[in-house]
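Lab notebook, bench 4. Still working through the backlog of constructs that have no structural model yet. Next entry is a single chain of 678 residues. Request: give me the structure tokens for it.
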Amino acid sequence: MTFRLFTVSCLLLLLVSLFISFLWVQTVLPGALDLDPWGQQIHFLPTVFSLWLPGIFLFFSSIWLYLSPRLSVVSEKKFLKYDVYSYFSILIFFWLQIIQKELSSPMTAFKTLILGILVLKAFLLFRAFHYQSELIQPGMLFTLSSGLYVLSLPFLHVSPELELSALLQSTVILQIASIIVKALALSAMALETFRLSLAMTKSHNSAFFGWIAIAFSFPLLFFPTLKLILAGLLLIFILRLLISNVDTREFIRGLQEPTSLTIAVKLIIILMLLGAAGLIFWSNVKPKFGIQADRAWEAAIGSLLNGQYGLLSTSPIYWLALCGIFYFLSFKVWDGILLIGTGTVLYSIYLFSNYGMFANIPFQFDCVPFIPFAGVFIATAYHRFRKSILFRTLAGVLLFATQALNGILLLAFPESSTIPGKMSQWQHLLFTQSQRDISILLFSMPYALFSHAFFLTFSAVGFFTWGTCALRSPSFPRPILQKLRIQHGSCGGGQTTRVPTVLLLVLLLSAAFFHLAPRLHQLPLHSPHRLSRDRSQLIIPVDSGPGRSRKYRAMILVSTMRNSMMLPHRSPVANVTVSETAKQFEHFVIKAGRDSAEETLDAPDMASLVEHGRAAVFRTAIQHTAAGSPFKAHDYYSRFVFSKNRAVEQISLKLLKDSEPALPADTELWIKDIFLLE
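Model written out:
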């Protein structure tokens, strides 16, 4: 891109900004102005949209202007041509503005178009980096990630239809400033991850892939709390200095033999690691605590696998990190073993202190300080296994799934401001529209220490990662290895899976999962049922019509609790008895924090008072406190699997008034919905 073309682009974008402001008046506020919209008088209503869309084009044009002298002739013709073509999408935006009164959700349409433009322009830029790895420089990556973070603000944090004059309010300025500070800290953390990945793999493309995986996926795109970002930045910075400047094998030997390393160097390293750990563990401590190892384990597994806030569920690309971990352990790479050991110890201490001792409620950003470790593992896995068609196909499917989830979390359900809230609404939509149980596919239930779901998941991951590591083993048969390699599609020293193959696999897997998901049959409750001390039992008959001819494998119970703040985690609340037509019975226990939870758990100042954890959220509604403050009230759901398929005749629930620990006198359990699964 020449400077003359860049100047023309800037003038064009200025006109685009003015025209967006002009169209916004004509299409949104024509009645308020009471004027001839096409007369001599011209009015403008500058909004965030009038800066957002031109800002995206200006940002990428500036990047291309900087890179043009360094691009090869082929890359310049190939990528700059498509970037110039992307300017025609501005006409589509104008068209959406003109017809927005006819759209059921115009804001979603605007955001979808802008997200598509952003993804397309970023994809072209990333492909140019892949073709010419010498373009990948630390300063460029920091600028690129910072700019993209700032450009993503209107998706979640700033209303795009907000007038520009409203941005000058002190509260809005402070909010935007705090988010920009987080964006810079996130960019620095991602950059340090790239540098450490580069030091360990010696490959710009592999380190760049790891940087993309962590920088542009959730939870980082949600801008977590600053202290967790700084903790992750400090940890990865210290480890990069250690691995880059100290021989790891010698360092580990030196920790055992004082003659190998000086006491001063050891002391400095230990103090730096303790300082980073102290920043991670900085949180509000409750005055009383007890040891709850099961709750810490549940939080550890849930923060990774829970379908509503787990890292591996909201961003499937992180599954590739397990391949890197298995590679380090299988081939005894000491730098990688140091990373695994450090991350495991700090992660365990953090979760045990927060949940096993202080009994906090699981947080959606628990994994943020440890995401840089995953980025290094992903870069290593990509570097070592990218020649395998199996790994490359898996990486393509996971990347596609991650971007699809990113789009859902950025565009859908704008009324929800948390990752669990958005994911629960998405799952509830799938429940109601498909009439199938998708909880088994999305890992929504809490993981127990010896649950079948955990062992099946861990076994599947272990088998795949063992297989990918076996491909790198010298003893693996060469003829089989040659069959697992793709022979076409070479570019930039690496090979890529064809996009149609990945899309076909995603569609086939989705169809298979949908077919395997059991059908839902909702019992007609008509209204919620309350269980309390004065009404402790409830009997719900199953429809005697076609229900008798059906056999069911499981039951989903939707419930919520009130006045249950003092109930400990996993304390029994009610018994559930499922009766069969053959006069056989099956019993289950509803437990606080696992199967149901306090309805007002997210009310102001309530989280610190609730003694049990958060169950899987089924749906959310806005309620108000006595002082008039709005909060999100939740209904929760749990899945009870029968020992065998049963022809259910009735379902009985009984509140455990005399359980240990005893239920508070005013505790209520509300049964909202019951689903039977074929």
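Notes after review: The two ends are 60 Å apart (CA to CA). The chain is about 55% helix and 15% strand. Flag for follow-up if needed.
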